[in-house]
Amino acid sequence: MKTPGPNFRDDMRALTDARLNFGPRGAAMTTKDALGFALDHARAREAVEAGLNLPELTGALTRLGLDHRVVTSAAANRETFIRRPDLGRRLPDGDAASLADLGPVDVALVLGDGLSAMAVALNGAAFMAALARRLRELGLGFGPVILAHQARVALGDGIARALGAQTVVMALGERPGLSAADSLGVYVTHLPRTDTQDSARNCISNIRDAGISVDDAADQTARLITAMRVTGQSGVALSQAIAAGALPRSSP
Fold first, then answer.
1. pLDDT (average), residues 9-32
2. Adjacent-strand bridge partners of 188
3. Superfamily of domain covering 58-243
4. 52: buried, middle or exposed (CB in 10 Å: 19+, 13-18, 0-12)?
5. What is the pLDDT, as a whole number, of residue 49?
């Protein structure tokens, strides 16, 4: 086994932001590492507690040529959203009714704050624009982007049903760790219901500058949507359909 060189820690940190090594064991972490931990913890808290910046988001979507609407989950404020995940999954009847005249559409596009509004601010509008271009090329209708306050993943199911959509793409900020507070996640669900399980969703995560690019994520999402429309399945069932030869393995 090769003995690590003097620059082992620097070499390893060049490969990943994860905390894999703090150096030799001693009485405590170095001051540098302790301050770095405190900074990343503060960034994670800020990401969770922040809300959507609607003026910036709506302005960005308008410049990209995307219409938009705004809804709020049954969690009326950020504190309730954090303490009551169940309310963040529920679309109030009034908001559902306000979307009814916008459908039906093939794909519902939802951009929610989730657990990191920072991630949405950085890459949310760009991802939606990139995916919209691909959906147009596929001949699929998608209607306005739905901006969702206090949104958990399953909120997209109610939005999709209100829009009469076969498929929903929910993009939202992922739970921040101590190595990344700006990661956007995308959840794609076909034929969503009120009782849709997480196993029926496909997820593309770590969309950020140091992870998956917006264009790659949009490509993957478009391929997933195509595969779902061919098989009528999503999530684990889609993987099983592909394994059984329902469509070429390279499709999703």
1. 68
2. 169, 202
3. Ethanolamine ammonia-lyase light chain (EutC) (3.40.50.11240)
4. buried
5. 57
